[in-house]
């Protein structure tokens, strides 16, 4: 697929879009309940679900920079069976998948309660903001056919 627009074109043409999405990211970071590695892994998992090449490349690189082992990145799509992920990480991935792949019945009370218990109310909101942010970035990146540097 040929890029329809570059990331720099987006920032120049309509800076309000990236700025609005960065506000969600800033909210998640300010809460301090989601460490950088988990944040990048969660963004990467959502980007895998959405088939967003640009964001997968970006967040795999960011995850490595934040200290996430390459082995974790290698098996992220199989996180349910991978023993390298903690119960907290797996719960974040479950929440990310539930919010990304909304089912007709929505999010179960059981999942909501588990996430709130593990992360706290503010952590649940921070994780939700992070997932909203990356789902939106995925849609922007896919629609504009943004291409990462290789």
Compact description:
The protein has 150 residues and is an all-alpha fold.
Indicate the topology:
Elements: H1 7-13, H2 16-31, H3 36-49, H4 53-65, H5 70-74, H6 87-100, H7 109-144
Helix pairs in contact: 2-7, 3-4, 3-6, 3-7, 6-7
Organism: Microbulbifer donghaiensis
Pfam families: CMD
Protein name: Alkylhydroperoxidase AhpD family core domain-containing protein
State mean pLDDT (0 to 100 scale): 93
N-to-C SSE series?
HHHHHHH
CA-CA gap between termini: 15 Å
Low-confidence stretches: none
**Can you tell me the CATH class?**
Mainly Alpha
What is the overall shape? globular
How big a fraction of the residues is strand? under 5%
Q: Radius of gyration over alpha carbons?
A: 15 Å
What name goes with the CATH superfamily? AhpD-like
Q: At CATH's second level, what is the architecture?
A: Up-down Bundle
CATH topology: AhpD-like
Main beta-sheet annotation: none
Report the structural category.
mainly alpha
Number of helices: 7
Q: Give the oligomeric state of the chains in this entry, treating copies of one chain as homo and distinct chains as hetero.
A: single chain
DSSP E strands, number: 0
Count of distinct structural domains? 1
Helical content stands at over 70%
InterPro entries: AhpD-like, AhpD_core, CMD-like
GO molecular function, one term: peroxiredoxin activity
Keywords: Oxidoreductase, Peroxidase
Pfam families: CMD
